[in-house]
Write a structure and sequence with these properties.
There is one protein chain. The chain is globular. The protein is built from 17 helices and 14 strands. The longest helix is centred in the middle third of the chain and has 18 residues, at 200-217. The chain has 352 residues and is an alpha/beta fold. Helix content is 41%, strand content 24%. Helix 7 crosses helix 8 and helix 12 (262-268) packs antiparallel against helix 17.
């Protein structure tokens, strides 16, 4: 687990949609399920007892299928949606107690949001859209032009400042959205399905761009997705939702190696484990160099690259390095065993 300080802390968060959510909350806390609540009381359980810590400088990815509550959750962080019960601390302050002025300051200066549908103003130029956050704080165009131009160049849109959104491709429009978030200089970025409307190749480019920017800027990012490959690629901390509650959360590699629920086993059953698992997740921790060492691999290399290097020879053992220091060793036999996924259907049978 990271030792970065906690920037956002969510505790016992509930959201119930309906005419009398407080009464419905009593039923939920007494054990009533989401389907029973809807059938018997006509209320929809959106979130149930959410407890998540989001650390400074990390990407927390919240994922789940449609209806799992992930977009509802992210909109609670800046109070676009009001909770039924719970607490949300940002930098140690409960934002649920904020007045209107404090909320405006939170949204303008501390949190910025990147939307799935880009949310650009069609009659504003690319430059003005990128500077929108500063404009809403009272800055003139002359004041934000340099900053907006810098971030547009950083996301690959240098020379497009005077174009309008309709003149750009979808990927370019989302780059404007990211530049707008960066121009705001807010320490927290909320990204709600930000790349899901993009074509696969453009989506991959945007993921790579976000990773590159994050290495440099160390923002606190909350990223919503329904795509497991995207979640595994981006997440420092992964939170998996189902029907409004957290099924499992943790470091993505740990969840891959130790799924605690058949729902998650189904999620991960079809992924290319060699491509997403890292050496550090399957190595033996030691500083001793194996006697038959076939060479060195990095702790963050994926298993696919090690397989290619060994040309499939399962007799090899590698010394694992991290930041120039030996941290473990990896035998190819151990690597091969790690590629065998947990059988979700067998786990269900054993549980019954």
């Amino acid at each position: 687990m990271s030792d970065n300080p906690i920037r956002i802390s969510i505790r016992e968060l509930y959201k119930i949609f309906g005419d009398d959510p407080q009464k419905a909350l009593e039923h939920v806390k007494a054990g009533m399920s989401k389907s029973e609540l809807l059938e018997e009381h006509g209320h929809v359980l959106g979130l149930q007892d959410i407890n998540v810590d989001m650390r400074e400088g990390e990407i927390t990815v919240i994922m789940g299928l449609s209806g799992s509550g992930k977009s509802t959750l992210i909109r609670h962080l800046n109070r676009l949606i009001e909770p039924t019960a719970g607490r949300i601390d940002v930098d140690g302050e409960d934002v649920l107690h904020y007045n209107d002025q404090q909320l405006r300051e939170l949204r303008r200066q501390h949190m910025t949001m990147v939307f799935q549908n880009f949310a650009l103003l069609p009659h504003w130029t690319v430059l003005d859209n990128a500077g929108m956050a500063l404009a809403t704080r009272g800055f003139d165009r002359d004041d934000y032009e340099e900053e907006a131009t810098k971030w547009l160049a950083r996301v690959g849109l240098e020379g497009n400042e005077n174009q309008y959104p309709h003149e750009l491709s979808g990927g370019m429009q989302q780059r404007v959205g990211i530049a707008r978030a960066l121009t705001s200089n807010a320490p927290i970025m909320l990204m709600d399905e930000a790349f899901s409307a993009l074509d696969p190749l453009i989506r991959t480019d945007m993921q790579d761009l976000l990773i590159e920017l994050q290495r440099e800027l160390k923002k606190t990012i909350v990223f919503i997705t329904h795509d497991l490959d995207e979640a595994l690629k981006l997440a420092d901390h992964l939170v998996i939702l189902k029907e409004g509650y957290v099924v499992q959360q943790g470091e993505p590699q740990e969840i891959l190696m130790q799924p605690n629920d058949p729902y998650i086993m189904d999620f991960i059953s079809d992924i290319n484990r060699a491509r997403v698992l890292r050496v550090r997740s399957v190595m033996d921790t030691t500083q001793t160099t194996p006697a038959d060492c076939a060479g060195e691999v990095d702790a963050d290399d994926n298993l696919e690259s090690v397989i290619a290097r060994s040309e499939g020879d399962t007799s090899f053992t590698y010394r694992v390095m991290q930041d120039g220091e030996p941290v473990g060793m990896l035998s190819m036999k151990r690597l091969v065993r790690a590629l065998v996924p947990t059988d979700a259907s067998q786990e269900r049978s054993n549980a019954q």
